[in-house]
Design brief:
The complex is a heterodimer of chains A (143) and B (1230). By secondary structure, chain A is α+β, with helices and mostly antiparallel strands. Chain A is 39% helix and 22% strand. Chain B folds into eight domains: 195 residues, Rossmann fold (3-Layer(aba) Sandwich); 150 residues, no CATH class; 51 residues, no CATH class; 88 residues; 125 residues, Immunoglobulin-like; 130 residues, Immunoglobulin-like, CATH 2.60.40.1290; 131 residues, Immunoglobulin-like; 112 residues, Sandwich (Immunoglobulin-like). In chain B, strands 10, 12, 15, 16, 19, 20 and 21 form a seven-stranded mixed beta sheet that branches. The chains are: A alpha+beta (143), B alpha+beta (1230). Chain A: It is found in: Endoplasmic reticulum; Golgi apparatus, cis-Golgi network; Golgi apparatus. Chain A: Part of the multisubunit transport protein particle (TRAPP) complex.
């Protein structure tokens, strides 16, 4: 299950963060997303390590913990998408596909002339679209 | 082959070094042993690795063993093959012989026998015992050695070397080392090949049922061990890696039920770095290697090699992934393993890894990138360990001591509970412990947040422990009890999923009371019971006393918790992952705070807050900032506390309740009005923002004050009173110009949201200005704001992007003409009559509202104060349409100044001031045709009016202007004798030149004659009345003839020294053009009188003196040429009154045209006799070419009428230009 999806600006400021848990524990997901920026920074600042990934927007698995996984995606404008999922058996291709769809939703949201670049995304349409994407995605390899 | 395992292990354990066999043929070993063993370990050896590439090995350990030694004897051939790693790698044959025959017959056949075994790598050391002085013996030895070489060495390989016991031979030892190395290398190559071949064969059979992992393991490990002995650690490591890979493939093949292991006492302590912790024989049963122990064993072998390779960072990183993957394996078998062994194992393995790597690691060993990565992994290990440690502590009931922070919640709430097959139950004798735990639960009070902030604490548990534990109860697990229990739990709270609405802390309380389960099969455990049960179970699991101590009490737990957090944070700080480190600092701070170390807590909290606010993570900031504020409050750090309050207020409004925000504000206000030791400045940029009003900037002329309206956005939840407020303006053009502050008077109350305040603005310098800084005071508190808002409330993420507004709020223009004052007419006005002087007041895009005009008339002019000053519009449109009656405003002059009416503030208007120019003198007429002009000078009629206009918002603008007004008489009078009658009567023509731009109507004119003249004909000296009224249009002339006769009576001699012409006239002119009718109240008295004195000449025939101009030289005049000008003065008649035999003369000449030498003025003797004459001459040089007026001779003492000019002098003379020469040459008179 995707528990959280976040858009983080190029100054590492949160632009959009939405959790999909029932419990009132969004703050811990904020924390996870925020800390995962460490990994994004590390990958971006150490191109040697990432190697052939250099021109790849999809950053892959950032955080292999026991209980959840964090995936990252970096747009050309250095906006990061962070995905936290509790599914432990996930195919990269599925995540990649999810990010691609999310990216296009994001593009539509920031192309809104009333959106101030670098400011939080407040569009309800965007929120609806994101939750639709999240609901439609299933990372289960069985499925 | 499986039965070889035990043997293999014992062989492996007994074997440590590369063995070099010594075949002591001639019993020499005791002699040379010392020298040989000194050479060990082999300092530098070149060996081939698995891929046949040369590898340099330093200090290769080796051991010399005699072939007769028991260790090398009695081995089975098969054993030798399989365990060949322990067989000698080289054989040294020690021989000596002093006799050639002996060599041939005895030694040689024996040696041949020894070396015939191909498997061995051998060489011969010939020891010469011949003393150096014995030539015979040494010769012999040489011969024998030569023979030996011929027999055993080949071209391909040198197999002999010679040791001279008495003559030390330096090259021998090198030779020996080289040969030993060569042998070892060759043997190693051969053995590698053998093992590889065997392994390959075995690998091919891998999927056959007969295949045995044990055999594979023995071969692989033998090879690895051989590499390790030869110090080829890299190769050895590769073998272990392959072995691990192979094991993981086989171990996961389904269908083969294996024993996992991990059930022994002490298994909870990781054996990650200790390969010998358990003998391998223990963990192998029927060709099945127990996963739990064997994987740890393999990792331990790898770690050992990595440490030998000096790569502790790799141990750490491999270790971390091993722990993660092994944890998964443990999770699969959790139900059969002891309670919580997974967690305990992870804790111990992480600690082992960090300790062992730290012991082997020193900074600077590797590049900075690897170093950072190393520290990151250590941080990860610590934080993994920390999470598991907290989990166990929670199970023991220390949950209330764990901070419910995002980081702890993230690591614990998604971590499932341990899943033992059955949850441990409470020992029967533990009721007192249960009571103690229950007491602890009741005593635990969640830490109340400062400012009375109420937040639902974040969860630390994935689901409710109470439910989870009871679900796995041993007593309930009989039969199909899970389904039954699930049904019951639905009954209990109506849902299968834990209700998120209830906070866990309150949950534990409500559920710790016995429920309504008394009647069911088994009463569910209470929370305290669960804790006690877990404690007992864990005590059984944990074999490490040190670790168990950490769980023994709350203090011990906190100590360990702090230690782990600190270590994790410290390591993260050394890595790339700064955020992880800082966040853990926050956890450390929470513990410090709890222990009253507020100072440390504050420092750490500050770091965390700086991190979150720097990147704009407000939700997280809102969680920590109150804690920081509380620390600051306790430490009495007023500045910090205030700034924290302000930061709390400036966070997103949705993050706090209104009540909470109000309490932040009340804290600020309380401190501001309280007694602060040191009034602190406070930055409220994020809270109070300001901007200019939308629309164009305020525009001011230079020197004008104004009112600046500014919008302030207050982020305070309530009204707030600002005791003072000032705002700086910064000039955009000129940075050097200091900023100027404008203040608002009095206190300002800001409402939440938008406020508009107006500040009065003193005059500013030219330029455009933007808003600078807002400063002010709340109580004793000086605040300051740099926050600019762009027409809306400051958004939360404005925190990061302060943009200086570029839009100017104020423009002060350069000094320019704001108004113009000018005279309305340029033509002359009537002298000595009341006249309107028009002053055009022309505002130039500037309002003259309230302007005051000071009028100061110069000498000879005064204002007719009896009349009001008039003001009217000035413009062309009125001229086109005369029917429009001009609006005229009457104004009165007070103290020399008048106030301009409001209607005239923006339009051009004209101000009519009644004045009278005064000239005491009488106008004088001139004689027509007279050469010298006696006309009155224009300057005489000039009067000035000094004007000073004060205007602007506060009369700050001044405008000074002096205007000149020209006054004149209506006529200029000239006279001429038109004719002379025989009776002496003269026709005097009086010519009137109109001087004004107005029509003059003469109604009457008469002469008051001077003595000696009398009017002829008429009685009253008037021309025929039928002439009148005579209209004289502007600037035209009119003439009047009078007949006068020189009279004889001298009666009124004293009364009439001059002849006066009197004219009564009317004037009709427009004041807009020039002279006009003077203002009178009464129309009837509009008749004006003009008087002018006339010069009447005596009759032309009776002059006293005649002045004649003598002719000029015939050659003409030339510039620069000297000539003499002569006049002849002749007395025609003697005048009694003159009574003088001299005449005063004066020569006047224009100095620009003439240079005159000689007396210009003087008395010339002239006899009183009639007819006497004199000549007056003067030297002249013309200076300018052209027609110029010649010098004139005047006789000042003699009246004009008594002089006759005959012949009259020329008006103009022609002066030729100078001759074309570069210098003036004056011809010398001949």
């Amino acid at each position: 299950m995707i528990v959280c999806i976040a858009v983080v600006g190029h100054q590492n400021n949160p632009l959009y963060i939405q959790s999909f848990t029932e419990a009132d524990d969004a703050l811990k997901l904020h924390h996870i997303v925020h800390c995962s920026l460490d990994v994004v920074d590390e990958r971006v600042n150490n191109p040697k390590k990432s190697g052939p990934m250099i021109n790849e927007t999809f950053l892959g698995l950032l955080y292999p913990t026991e209980n959840y996984k964090v995936y990252g995606y970096l747009t050309n404008t250095k906006v990061k998408f962070i995905l936290v999922t509790t599914d432990l058996d996930v195919r990269d291709a599925d995540v990649r596909n999810f990010f691609r769809r999310f990216h296009s939703a994001y593009l539509d949201a920031v192309s809104n002339p009333f959106h101030v670049p670098g400011k939080k995304i407040t569009s309800k349409t965007f929120a609806e679209r994101v939750s639709t994407i999240v609901k439609s995605v299933s990372f289960n390899t069985a499925g | 082959m499986a039965n070889f395992l035990a043997q293999f292990l014992s062989i492996k354990n007994s074997c440590e070094r590369v063995v070099i066999a010594v075949e002591d043929v001639s019993d020499l070993w005791p002699l040379v042993k010392k020298g040989f063993e000194e050479r060990l370990p082999i300092r530098r050896a070149t060996l081939n690795n698995k891929t046949r590439n040369p590898v340099y090995v330093d200090n290769l350990p080796a051991e010399f063993i005699l072939t007769t030694d028991s260790r090398l004897r009695s081995r089975f051939p098969q054993e030798q093959l399989l365990f060949s790693f322990r067989e000698p790698y080289a054989t040294v044959v020690l021989v000596t012989c002093e006799d050639l025959d002996e060599f041939k017959t005895i030694l040689k056949p024996r040696l041949k026998l020894i070396v015939q075994n191909d498997e061995r790598e051998w060489f011969i050391v010939f020891v010469s015992r011949a003393p150096p002085h014995n030539d015979q013996a040494s010769k012999m030895a040489k011969k024998v050695y030569a023979k030996l070489e011929v027999d055993f060495s080949s071209k391909k390989r040198e197999r002999c070397c010679k040791l001279d016991m008495h003559g030390p031979e330096a090259t021998f030892w090198e030779d020996l080392e080289f040969k030993i190395t060569e042998c070892i290398r060759n043997t190693l190559d051969r053995r590698i090949q053998f093992y590889e071949e065997e392994i390959r064969k075995l690998s091919e059979q891998r999927f056959k049922p007969v295949w045995s992992f044990c055999n594979f393991f023995i071969l692989k490990e033998s090879l690895a061990f051989m590499f390790e002995m030869a110090h080829l650690h890299e190769d050895s490591l590769r073998e272990y890696d392959e072995l691990e890979l192979c094991y993981l493939e086989t171990v996961n093949i389904a269908g083969k039920q294996r024993d996992f292991g991990g059930m022994d006492h002490g298994d909870d302590q990781a054996a990650l770095l200790n390969p010998g912790k358990k003998p391998l024989t223990q963990i192998v049963q029927d060709d099945s290697f127990r996963e739990f122990e064997f994987r740890q064993y393999l990792f331990a072998c790898q770690a050992k090699l990595l440490f030998k390779l000096n790569r502790p960072f790799e141990v750490a990183s491999r270790g971390y992934s091993f722990v993660i993957s092994f944890s998964k394996a443990l999770a699969l078998h959790e139900s059969i393993l002891p309670f919580c062994i997974r967690e305990v194992w992870i804790i111990t393995s992480c600690l082992d890894l960090v300790n062992a790597t730290a012991a082997h690691y020193s900074n600077g060993l590797v590049g900075p990138e690897i170093e950072k990565e190393y520290y990151r992994v250590r941080g990860e290990l610590y934080s993994l360990c920390r999470a598991k440690f907290m989990r166990l502590a929670y199970l023991l009931g220390y949950g209330s001591a764990i901070e419910r922070s995002p980081v702890n919640s993230a690591s614990l709430s998604m971590l499932p509970w341990p899943k033992p097959a059955t949850w441990p139950s409470v020992p029967s004798d533990a009721s007192s412990e249960v009571l103690a735990k229950e007491k602890m639960i009741l005593q635990a009070t969640p830490r109340a947040k400062h400012f009375g902030i109420q937040r639902k604490p974040l969860p630390l548990e994935p689901t409710f422990l109470l439910r989870e534990a009871n679900r796995r109860r041993a007593s309930l697990s009989a039969g199909n009890i899970f389904e039954m229990f699930d049904g019951r739990s639905n009954f209990m709270d109506g849902s299968t999923s834990p209700s998120p609405k209830l906070p866990p802390t309150s949950m534990s309380r409500t559920n710790s009371t016995p429920g309504n389960f008394e009647s069911s099969i088994d009463r569910p455990m209470k929370l305290a019971e669960i804790f006690v049960a877990a404690e007992h179970a864990l005590k059984k699991t944990i074999s490490d006393n040190g670790l168990w101590t950490s769980f023994s009490s709350l203090q011990e737990f906190e100590k360990k918790y702090l230690e782990l957090s600190k270590s994790a944070a410290e390591n993260y700080h050394h890595s790339w992952w700064k955020r992880h480190g800082v966040v853990l600092d926050g956890e450390i701070a929470a513990v410090c705070f709890k222990h009253g170390e507020h100072d440390l807590a504050k420092k750490s909290y500050e770091k965390v807050c700086a991190l979150y606010s720097g990147e704009g993570w407000e939700d997280l900031l809102a969680d920590v900032l109150p804690d920081l504020a509380e620390c600051q409050k306790i430490l009495n750090d007023q500045a910090g506390y205030l700034s924290s309050c302000v930061r709390l207020l400036s966070l997103d409004k949705n993050l706090f309740l209104k009540k909470e925000r109000e309490s932040f504000q009340s804290e600020v206000v309380r401190l501001a009005h309280g007694d602060m030791d040191h009034p602190v400045p406070l930055d409220v940029s994020s809270l109070i923002t300001f901007s200019g009003n939308s629309g164009p900037p305020l525009e001011l002329c230079d020197g004008d004050p104004g009112n600046l309206s500014v919008t302030l956005w207050s982020g305070f939840p309530d009204d707030i009173t600002l005791d003072s407020l000032s705002l700086t303006l910064t000039a955009t053009s000129n940075a050097d110009e200091g900023v100027k502050a404008i203040r608002s008077a009095g206190a300002t109350v800001l409402n939440p949201g938008r406020n508009t305040i107006t500040l009065s603005l003193p005059p500013q310098k030219t330029g455009s200005y933007v808003l600078g800084v807002l400063t002010g005071q709340i109580g004793h508190l000086r605040f300051r704001s740099h926050g600019y808002s762009r027409g809306g409330p400051a958004e939360s993420d404005d925190l990061m992007s302060y943009e200086k507004p570029t839009r100017p709020i104020l423009k002060v223009f350069k000094p320019r003409a704001l108004v113009d004052l000018a005279a309305a007419v340029s033509s002359a006005l009537l002298m000595n009559e009341p006249q309107w002087v028009g002053i055009i007041v022309k505002p130039i895009n500037y309002s003259l509202k309230g302007a005051v005009l000071h009028i100061d008339t110069g000498p000879g002019l005064r204002i007719e104060e009896s009349h009001a000053i008039e003001m009217e519009k000035y413009g062309l449109e009125d001229k086109n349409n005369a029917s429009v009656v001009k609006e005229i405003t009457k104004l009165t002059l007070t103290n020399g100044s008048i106030e301009l009416p409001d209607w005239a503030s923006n339009i051009e208007s004209v101000l009519w001031v009644p004045v009278r120019a005064i000239n005491e003198g009488l106008a004088r007429g001139t004689s027509a045709g007279a050469v010298s002009s006696g006309r009155p000078s224009v300057v005489d009629g000039l009067r000035t009016v000094a004007l000073k206009l004060e205007f602007g918002v506060s009369h700050n603008q001044k405008f000074d202007r002096t205007i000149a007004v020209h006054f004149t008489n209506p006529f200029h009078v000239s006279t001429r004798v038109a004719d002379k009658c025989s009776d002496g009567t003269v026709l005097l023509q009086v010519i009137l030149h109109s001087q004004v731009k107005a029509s003059l109507t003469i109604h009457d004119a008469w002469l008051d004659l001077k003595d000696g003249f009398a009017l002829a004909g008429q009685s009253n000296g008037r021309p025929t009345s039928a002439f009148f009224p005579l209209v004289v249009p502007s600037t035209s002339r009119a003439g009047i003839l009078f007949t006068i006769s020189p009279g004889t009576n001298d009666e009124a001699k004293a009364m009439n020294p001059d002849t006066i012409l009197n004219i009564k006239y009317k004037i009709s002119g427009d004041r807009n053009l020039g002279s006009h009718t003077p203002m009178f109240e009464d129309e009837a008295t509009q008749m004006l009188t003009f008087k002018s004195a006339l010069v009447l000449q005596r009759p032309v025939l009776e002059p006293c003196l005649a002045v004649g101009f003598l002719p000029l030289p015939s050659g003409g005049l030339r510039v620069g040429q000297l000539f003499t000008m002569k006049w002849r003065v002749e007395r025609l008649k003697y005048l009694d009154e003159e009574n003088n035999d001299e005449v005063l003369y004066e020569v006047n000449a224009n100095s620009e045209n003439w240079m005159i030498a000689g007396r210009k003025r003087g008395h010339a003797p002239l006899s009183t006799k009639q007819g006497s004459r004199i000549e007056i001459s003067i030297l002249c040089v013309p200076l300018a070419a052209g027609y110029v007026r010649p010098p004139q001779l005047e006789l000042p003492d003699i009246g004009e009428g008594n002089i006759s000019c005959n012949p009259a002098g020329p008006h103009l003379v022609c002066v030729s230009p100078p001759p074309l020469s570069s210098s003036f040459c004056i011809p010398i008179p001949a």
